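Weekly structure sync, notes
Attendees: PL (lead), two postdocs, one rotation student
Agenda item 3: pending single-chain targets
PL asked that the sequence for the first pending target be pasted directly into the notes so everyone works from the same version. It is reproduced below exactly as submitted, 217 residues in total.
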Amino acid sequence: MSWSEVALLAVVLLGLALWWVWVAASRLDRLHHKVVASRLALQAQLDRRVRTSLDLASSGLLDPASSVLLADAAFAVTTAGEPPGLAEEGVPGPTADAETVAVVGGPSPAEAFALTGLPAERERSESELSVTLRSVLADADTVAGLRSSGPGEELVGDLAGAWYRAQLARRFHNEAVAQAQRARRPRRARWLRLAGRAPWPQTVELDDQMPDGIDAT
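Predicted structure, written out during the meeting:
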């Protein structure tokens, strides 16, 4: 084999190697975008659950103690991850309307496009909201009383729908994270730094078990 043929073969092999790296890096980039998109979808459904919880707490359909507990748990979600002292700078309390609270608790642009899942404090507060909702709606008579009126039936239906979609969104997000992790785990992906400086994708782990007394619609 002549030197020209060897050089041509080397160029071809190098081109194939560069093509493989480009394909692998592009696939990993798409998986990262999928992780971000699925987490944003999950966050939207969790935010909707918070708003519906606040609506239920302020509806006057629950007993006063349950209303206060639910409002406190929902408000804790909106302030999860906020810098200390933010409440003293004009952040509304548990009696604030749902739209105002939702804006205050929104993620920063950096957090919105991160691969690191939800902040640990947000996961804890979401889990605590689930526990509180299950406690408030554990009594079948309470749920039946809510469903006996038009507004109560609508609130329970909205809460069940948002909760169920949040469960599905978390499942899809965690599957997207698992796919990205599998793509980044091989040694060749680490040696070639196909992921660049992107952090390791993280799943979202929280208590999202629904009460037995409400049905997803």
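Discussion points:
- The longest helix spans residues 3-57.
- Residues 83-105 have pLDDT under 50 and may be disordered.
Action: rotation student to compare against the earlier draft before next sync.
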